[in-house]
């Protein structure tokens, strides 16, 4: 497989040209074998015609020679077909996997930016239907070039026999192929519309599956099912519209060459009657005309493949052109084991080795600060004396972990999902997150296989398992966004107490308006209108009729 390289993203067609250029040797061989395959078939009528003339003249030696030529052409055709198909397969796989690897690498580079810019269904559709269409292009291009070369070759052979028939091929074939041109624009538009609906439907299906438990709980399963059925019908109708245009192309592949065959045979018969062609040459002319149906169909199919690949490349380029919300530096920095952070946008200062809580007048304000602290959103955050944006993204991810309630529990063995350097660390993390009872109730304990998204667990159980996973990682800086919003007060109190002990001497930021968590923090920062307006302990800030007290007491009630 080729290295990824830097794709040309100026337009879908630039990307396709770059992709073809990455496998120029495979394409060259595909063209060579394709030309050999078609040319050997195209010359077979010529050899048959000469053999018929030898029979008519009772020339046994010439008959044997041309019979041998026919057998040789058949062997060359067979070999060319096998080798051409092999190159087609290699080209398709290279295009498929190179595009797939580019999209996968881009998804990893974008990280949390990707779901903000494009839906999961769109990404799935890019990785399935679009990659398939793009993979079909190299083989179609090689066959199309082979078809063009073969048509010219047949025309030259015919010109040596009859100028009229040769010119008919040279002029008639391009004119007939141009007759399919008016179909390409509506086909391109309809495939694009179908592709849009396909991405939307895939995204809706993913939403339904991931939220099935909630939908059943609120009685919304039937409503979403009905929406899915309606969207599915719209997609079906769009598919029918695409098929109406696509079905004309196969009909044209039969009708137009059929007209051409009739014209060649009629003109050839008139020439034969007038003595301009021998019987063998007339048979050869018919064979040429019948054979030309194959390169004409191949050329039409190649154009159809290009239209589909162009639509697919537009989607791929859209994904590959996305840029992450935050950039990445290059030089790693030496930082303390438990560094402090400062967010210039809000004025929040996180002291090293302590537990800092962020209480905000609205949940969005606290979440925005957490995004900046983890460098999931642009901002002016410093760690120690170093600007966070100047560090390599890999070092940032090692340094700061942000845990949110929409983080995913991956399918697979629970122990592997929770991570941790050892069983001891993992078990301690489960204890600190008050999640031991969850594992104890599972039939196979930590060896239990978790379903996609942890859908077999309740909301509170998922939250505690996510917290245990974060604690098992033991990052130098841990940012928790509403880590106890789905648990009861008793469980929250236990978690708050154990969290402080678990993260002793490490830097921890908790975004929450829960009094139980705020009371355990070393320092609380109250944020209003995106700015830190006051700091102190929970008990200091909660006295009197302060805005902080109003927000926290509202949370408590």
UniProtKB/TrEMBL annotation:
It comes from the Bacteria. Keywords: Membrane, Transmembrane, Transmembrane helix. The keyword Transmembrane applies. It is a multi-pass membrane protein. The chain crosses the membrane at residues 27-48, 63-83, 140-159, 165-185, 254-273, 279-296. Gene3D superfamilies: ABC transporter type 1, transmembrane domain, P-loop containing nucleotide triphosphate hydrolases. Residues 296-554 form the ABC transporter domain. Pfam families: ABC_membrane, ABC_tran. Residues 28-308 form the ABC transmembrane type-1 domain. This is Multidrug ABC transporter permease. The lineage of its organism: Bacteria, Bacillati, Actinomycetota, Actinomycetes, Kitasatosporales.
